[in-house]
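Q: Hi! First time doing this. I have a protein sequence and I read that you can turn it into a structure. Is that right? Here it is:
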Amino acid sequence: MVGSPPKSPSTTPTTVGFISLGCPKNLADSEVALGLTAQAGFTLTREPEEADLLVVNTCGFLESARQESVDTILEMAGYKERGRCRGLVVTGCLGQRYGVELLEALPEVDVVLGSADYQRLPEVLRGLVAGRQGREATVGVPDHLYTADLPRLSLTAPHMAYLKIGEGCDNACTFCSIPLMRGGFVSRPIADLLREAEAMAARGVQEVVLISQDTTAYGCDRGSDGEDLAALLRALDRQGAIPWIRLLYAYPGSVNDDLIDALATCERVVPYLDMPLQHISDEVLRRMNRRGKSQAIRATLAALRRAVPEMALRTTFILGFPGETESHFKELCEFVAEVGFDWLGGFPYSEEEGTAAVGFAGAVAAELAQERLDRLMALQRQISRQRLQDRVGRRERVLIDGLSRETDLLLAGRTARMAPEIDGVVYINDGVDDAAPPIGRFVEVEITEAHDYDLVGRVVGGEEDA
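A: Yes, that's right. Below is the predicted 3D structure, encoded as structure tokens:
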């Protein structure tokens, strides 16, 4: 999962295996943890059976993610019996939320570190090697971020990177456990982010994706110093180091005119916005404690498309939130058809321990919530196909990611309207030099076919044309 870090200075190098679960924000933490581990002299491996020590960076956002985390921990614990592993460390959101309980429930685990404590990892690993590290759970207050000075080992393709601009969340949505695991919002200074972006560009990054639990909250903790998200986008654009700058996880109530202007005028900011709306019914939004009503959301979307006609919009909805009626669901479907989102995801509501929505009246059966999600996604499949069909015949600038996951006979890339990992791709079936495929480079592609979520095209020009 990693590159080639420095070898351990000891006569018997200790090998560490690292498993990262969950969202891109967790992945960014994993990259720093790996960088610190390599800097401390440990050897890293992709193969858990080769590891002397194993680390699992967990996700705890939803029940399905928690179950995946526990299953992975138990799978890695098996290498203590049948492999060479002699120490197992758990970190991340699950560790932050259930530190001592996790240690007590899983005797196979040696150390639990919270999401704020992964920077202690080298110290803990050294203690395990030396035999002086007892079983412990350390769960600190998640009120700080890493800086550009800390080492990172990339877990993404070499030509793209996630830039974590903030941590935590102040929105207090009744369904969400993130503040319980990540604390209140805190953001990094623009100068520090520019330094990290410069370092990314120096190693060949062509696309940087800005992430945090709520990117539009950027700067809200910094008083009146003028550092907000619009200012950050303009600063990255002026820096000119990275061709594509992408924005994920916007909160609709915080998308103001200045941010829309920055999205419209910054040349390197791609015409794309991910803005999880969660619902459109005013009644459901009120129960979710979401700022802004249906009318304001519609006005924001209309303003975005007026300012950036090519804007690709992604959103996410929760189905089956307590009190959601068939009428509310019908309203949501009508809204989705009206707006025509380019990309849409959803998940059935699950009750999260410690959140305000626990015990809300009007519970929706899990089977009905899943049925509504299936119906919504069937509608979105039709919308997506039509919006992609509108791209056929156009020439698009495409960043080539690598070989297709479907077949190594095709390359896969993305237009500016496609985010890595979560959206569709452009399959390249013609016009490529097989001896020197342009992986990590921009090419001009003529779109020839559209499917439900993906495009097909042929290369018609090189980087200078794109």
